[in-house]
């Protein structure tokens, strides 16, 4: 009922103007005004709900989007992807032994530094690597500032312990190709480097080699051209 209709209804009633005015005001305050207030609150609640859903969607989408890949290649290859919050969102191993190893470590959602420590410690405890082993750690990201920061941190942390440590920043564009060939980003970079020197080198040959053998192939410049 609108205010005009209320007014017309009261005009037909013979009562003192003061009483009619008080009654009109009571109906406006307790019926008409409350109805509009309810609709306004309902609209505000809908906007708030939509904003909450949007924020949740953006947060989840950001969390599950990788911004960096880190691979550890030695006698075996392990790689994990990191989001912008520095949390591990996926882990890959490229042989049965290391696949069992990463499953036992429960690395997902941990900080990438903790994940790297856990992997390296576990590789040592299983005698897969030691201080003399050739270890290749690759940090691949489109964010150059982030990549250089992580690379320096990793290099400074492990270079004293591992005599044959190599840390590098593979081109981020290699990541999809590495996944396609079921290779770590570090090993795929070695393959691309070797291909420049030896174009006839097969990618399957690299997949089935450990990283020090890949490095040896990379150093054979032009021998099989």
Write the layout of secondary structure elements.
Layout: H1 3-11, H2 17-63, E1 68-73, E2 77-82, E3 88-93, H3 96-105, H4 112-125, E4 134-141, H5 144-158, E5 164-168, H6 174-180, H7 185-197, H8 203-207, H9 211-219
Parallel strand pairs: 4-5
Antiparallel strand pairs: 1-2, 1-4, 2-3
Q: In short, what is this structure?
A:
The protein has 225 residues and is α+β, with helices and mostly antiparallel strands. The chain has helices spanning 3-11, 17-63, 96-105, 112-125, 144-158, 174-180, 185-197, 203-207, 211-219, and strands at residues 68-73, 77-82, 88-93, 134-141, 164-168.
Please tag this protein with its features.
225 residues; alpha+beta; 2 domains; disordered C terminus
Structural features, described:
The longest helix is centred in the N-terminal third of the chain and has 47 residues, at 17-63. Strands 3-2-1-4-5 form a five-stranded mixed beta sheet, with helices on both faces. α6 packs across α7 (185-197) and α7 (185-197) packs parallel to α9. The chain is 57% helix and 14% strand. The chain has 225 residues and is an alpha+beta fold. The protein folds into two domains: 3-63, no CATH class; 68-219. The radius of gyration is 33 Å and the shape is elongated.
For the report, how would you describe the main beta sheet? 5 strands, mixed
How many helical elements?
9
Radius of gyration in whole Å, from Cα?
Answer: 33 Å
Spatial order of the strands forming the largest sheet: 3-2-1-4-5
Name the helicity range.
55-70%
User: What value does the average pLDDT take?
Assistant: 80
Task: Tally the structural domains.
Answer: 2
Order of secondary-structure elements: HHEEEHHEHEHHHH
């Amino acid at each position: 009922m609108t205010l005009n209709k209320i007014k017309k209804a009261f005009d037909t009633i013979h009562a003192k103007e003061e009483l009619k005015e008080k009654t009109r005001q009571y109906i406006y305050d307790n019926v008409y005004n409350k109805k509009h207030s309810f609709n306004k609150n309902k609209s505000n609640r809908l906007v708030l709900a939509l904003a909450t859903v949007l924020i949740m969607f953006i947060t989840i989408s950001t969390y599950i989007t990788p911004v960096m890949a880190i691979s550890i290649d030695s006698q075996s290859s392990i790689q994990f992807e990191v989001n912008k919050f520095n949390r591990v969102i996926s882990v890959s191993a490229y042989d049965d032994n290391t696949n069992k190893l990463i499953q036992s470590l429960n690395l997902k959602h941990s900080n990438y530094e903790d994940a790297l420590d856990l992997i390296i410690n576990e590789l040592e405890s299983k005698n897969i690597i030691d201080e003399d082993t050739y270890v290749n750690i690759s940090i691949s990201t489109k964010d150059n500032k982030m990549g250089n920061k992580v690379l320096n941190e990793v290099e400074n942390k492990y270079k004293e312990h591992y005599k044959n440590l190599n840390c590098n920043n593979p081109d981020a564009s290699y990541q999809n190709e590495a996944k396609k060939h079921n290779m770590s980003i570090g090993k795929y970079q070695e393959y691309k480097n070797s291909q420049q020197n030896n174009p006839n080198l097969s990618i399957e040959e690299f997949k089935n080699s450990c990283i020090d053998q890949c490095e040896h192939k990379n150093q054979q410049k032009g021998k099989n051209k």
